[in-house]
Amino acid sequence: MLKVGLTGGLASGKTFVAELLEQHGCHVIYADRLGHEVLLPSGEAYAAVVKEFGREILQADGHINRKALAGLVFSSPERLEALNSLVHPHVFRRQDEFFARVAAEDPTGIAVVEAAIMIEAGSHKRYDRLLVTYCTPEQQIQRFLKRHGVTEAEARARIERQMPLDAKRKFADYVIDTSGTKQDSARRVDEVYQKLREESRLPKAAG
C-alpha cells in the first residue's frame, strides 16, 4: 500500500483533486472531516478543548461553535498551537486506523489523506509520496471569494496566514497545477495517478 499526502492552500483545488483520485479507485480520507469528528460532543478531543478554551465556545446544543473557536486562535499562534496539540493526535490516530484498514483490504492500494496544513504541521513526513496542488495567489483569492462570500481583505488575510504555494511545492513529489481548466487539471491527475499506481505495486524496501 502506498500512503499519499495531498495538500496545497486555501482554494487551490485539493478537494477537486481528491475526488478525481477517488474516482480512479484511490482510498481517500479528509483530515478536516476527521477534525470535525473529534470535536463533536462524542469526540476524543471535545472535553480537553472545552476545558482549554472555556464553555463560551459552546452552542446552546452543547456542540463546539467552530467559528467562535477559530476566532480565538486566528491571531494567536500560541492558542493555535494549543488547539492543534489537543486535536492532531486524535486525527493522526484515525488516519493510522484508516491506513490499517486499507492495507488489510487492498494491500497494493493507494491511501490518500487530504489536509491543508500538512507541511506546516510536519505531518507530510508520514507519507510515502506528497502531492501539492498549485495555482496563483490571485486565483486562490477569487475562488475563495466565490465560494465563501467574504471580503477580499478577509480572503487575503486567510491565505497570507498559510505557507505560500511556491514554498509548498518544493516539498512535493508531484505538483498538480490547477491554474488552467478543469480538463487540464484532470489530465495531470491522470498522469500522477498512473505513476502512483506503478509505485504502489513495487515491493517495499527493507527497513
Domain tally: 2
Q: Under the CATH scheme, which class of the largest domain?
A: Alpha Beta
Side-by-side strand order of the widest sheet: 2-3-1-4-5
Helix and strand element order: EHEHHHHEEHHHEH
Strand content: 5-15%
What's the CATH superfamily of the largest domain, by name? P-loop containing nucleotide triphosphate hydrolases
Poorly predicted regions are: none
Distance between the termini: 15 Å
Going by helix content, strand content and strand pairing, the class is alpha/beta
General shape: globular
Number of strands: 5
- Arithmetic mean pLDDT: 94
**CATH fold-level name of the largest domain:** Rossmann fold
Instruction: Let me know the largest β-sheet.
Output: 5 strands, parallel
Task: Summarize the structure in words.
This protein is an alpha/beta fold. The protein folds into two domains: 125 residues, P-loop containing nucleotide triphosphate hydrolases (Rossmann fold, 3-Layer(aba) Sandwich), CATH 3.40.50.300; 76 residues, P-loop containing nucleotide triphosphate hydrolases (Rossmann fold, 3-Layer(aba) Sandwich), CATH 3.40.50. The protein is 52% helix and 12% strand. Helix 2 packs across helix 5 and helix 6 packs across helix 7. The longest helix is centred in the middle third of the chain and has 29 residues. It starts with a strand and ends in a 7-residue tail after the last helix.
